[in-house]
């Protein structure tokens, strides 16, 4: 990432990550499709309501994993072998500790969070069962996320792709077997997911262990080095706090959606799964930009970092514009794949019509934020995104729904908050991060 044509370096690194994220997205999406078609709309609503809760519990760690990836990328870019080794073993130690903690928190807090969200009684029990089974697999999820961050930080974006391809195909097969043929319902969908997540964790560890020349990995060396831990927290903590805050905001939004009933929940859930695929390019470019900026910052190539931010942001926005056009043309048919009830399709299409205009702004915001994190400047994107995607969004929804009790008021909170974050991040870049004293 520190040599050659910038757009090629970003594109070639992001494409395998795009496919990796595609297969990652397949986990809950396949659950929703199988459950929506073979169990029903209320079961689809139950799976859908779980998404924001899962991310609330796991979002903090995902931010830390991103911070660990930046630390590994910086040391790897600086060719500091001993520091790279310490960062890798500390990162995996963090993954194990947080995996155990998140499992306990998730199982204990599930029912309380569902009640706080106002999940209807008709889907409450199924939501609870799905989440509690899902959280039993959190250790595997944490280990995989940390392992993938390590692998990607050293410039290998293909191995996580192959791992997720294997795990996702496994998940699809198990979903069909457990739900369709064994009639295990929503429990079968959750069980299929955690088995697949465990497989991905095992494969990630095997990859790191086999690449001894690059990672110097040994199980006996897994421990938390306090100095490295401090660096990981310094970079990853803002991202973790940001993810948690955004997740809490999404729970507030989901509670407003829940007030419109199970059909609205199912329709919005189906669209949110589709949206997960629509924004994959944005997520992939953001992750690629973090690694690009991290390696080049570590190598002292600050002018290349500045050029990369501009190039990567334009690439992210262009890809999102293409995806948005396709989404407009196909959304009704895509929602019907989950459940063809006319009410479900109606709510999904309506949500799309409000959110798509804001996707260009969220793609630019994510690319800039990822670059800043790679440079070690993670506090600013955290503050901007929490202020806009949480504070502004919740304030808008709270105020607008009192005046106009329509689900459209809830949907509008997304493009408004995305646009605001884009404007603020651009101003910050022009006034600070793009100065010559970037380092």
Q: Could you characterize the architecture of this molecule?
A:
By secondary structure, the protein is mostly helical. The chain has one domain. Helices cover 86% and strands 0% of the residues. The chain is built from 16 helices and no strands. α2 packs antiparallel against α3 and α14 (359-374) runs antiparallel to α15 (379-403). The protein starts with 5 loop residues before the first helix and ends in a 6-residue tail after the last helix. The mean pLDDT is 85.
Topology:
Layout: H1 6-38, H2 41-77, H3 81-116, H4 121-135, H5 138-153, H6 159-181, H7 185-210, H8 212-215, H9 226-258, H10 262-278, H11 280-298, H12 302-338, H13 342-355, H14 359-374, H15 379-403, H16 407-433
Q: What's the main sheet like? A: none
Number of strand elements: 0
Shape: globular
The succession of helices and strands, N to C, reads HHHHHHHHHHHHHHHH
Mean pLDDT equals: 85
User: What's the domain count?
Assistant: 1
Separation of termini?
18 Å
Helix content: over 70%
Count of DSSP H/I helices: 16
Secondary-structure-derived class: mainly alpha
Return residue spans where pLDDT drops below 50 for at least 5 consecutive residues.
none
User: Strand share of the residues?
Assistant: under 5%
Q: What is the alpha-carbon Rg in Å?
A: 21 Å
GO molecular function: antiporter activity; xenobiotic transmembrane transporter activity
Subcellular location: Cell membrane
Transmembrane segments: 6-23, 53-76, 88-109, 129-148, 160-182, 188-208, 309-331, 351-372, 379-399, 411-429
Keywords: Cell membrane, Membrane, Transmembrane, Transmembrane helix, Transport
């Amino acid at each position: 990432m520190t040599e050659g044509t910038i757009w090629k370096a970003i594109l070639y690194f992001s494409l395998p990550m795009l496919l990796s994220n595609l297969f990652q997205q397949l986990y809950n999406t396949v659950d929703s499709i199988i459950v929506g078609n073979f169990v029903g709309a209320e079961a689809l609503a139950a799976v859908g309501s779980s998404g924001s809760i899962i991310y609330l519990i796991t979002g903090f760690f995902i931010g830390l994993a991103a911070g660990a990836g930046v630390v590994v990328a910086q040391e790897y870019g600086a060719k500091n072998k001993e520091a790279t080794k310490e960062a890798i073993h500390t990162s995996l130690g963090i993954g194990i500790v947080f995996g155990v903690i998140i499992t306990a928190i998730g199982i204990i807090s599930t029912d309380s969070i569902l009640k706080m969200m106002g999940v209807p009684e008709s889907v409450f029990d199924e939501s609870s069962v799905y989440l509690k089974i899902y959280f039993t697999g959190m250790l595997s999820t944490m280990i995989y996320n940390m392992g993938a961050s390590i692998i990607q930080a050293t410039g290998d974006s293909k191995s996580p792709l192959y791992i997720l391809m294997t795990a996702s195909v496994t998940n699809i097969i198990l979903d069909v077997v457990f739900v369709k043929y064994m009639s295990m319902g929503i429990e079968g969908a959750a069980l299929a997911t955690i088995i697949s997540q465990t497989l991905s964790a095992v494969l990630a560890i095997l990859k790191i262990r086999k690449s001894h020349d690059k990672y110097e990995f040994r199980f006996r060396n897994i421990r938390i080095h306090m100095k490295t831990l401090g660096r990981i927290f310094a970079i990853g903590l803002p991202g973790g706090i940001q993810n948690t805050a955004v997740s809490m905001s999404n729970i507030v939004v989901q509670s407003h959606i829940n007030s419109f009933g199970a059909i609205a929940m199912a329709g919005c859930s189906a669209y949110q799964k589709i949206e997960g695929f629509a924004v994959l390019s944005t997520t992939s470019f953001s992750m690629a930009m973090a690694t690009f900026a991290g390696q080049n910052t570590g190598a002292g190539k600050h002018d290349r970092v500045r050029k990369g931010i501009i190039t990567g942001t334009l690439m992210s926005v262009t890809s999102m514009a293409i995806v948005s056009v396709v989404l407009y043309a196909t959304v009704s048919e895509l929602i019907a794949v989950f459940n063809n009830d006319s009410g479900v399709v109606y709510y999904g299409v309506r949500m799309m019509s409000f959110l798509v205009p804001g996707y260009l702004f969220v793609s630019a915001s994510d690319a800039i934020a990822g670059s800043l994190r790679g440079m070690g400047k993670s506090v600013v994107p955290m503050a901007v995104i929490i202020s806009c995607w949480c504070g502004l969004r919740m304030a808008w929804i709270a105020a607008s729904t009192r005046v106009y009790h329509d689900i459209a008021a809830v949907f509008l909170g997304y493009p408004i908050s995305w646009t605001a974050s884009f404007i603020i991040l651009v101003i910050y870049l022009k006034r600070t991060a793009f100065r010559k004293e970037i380092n």
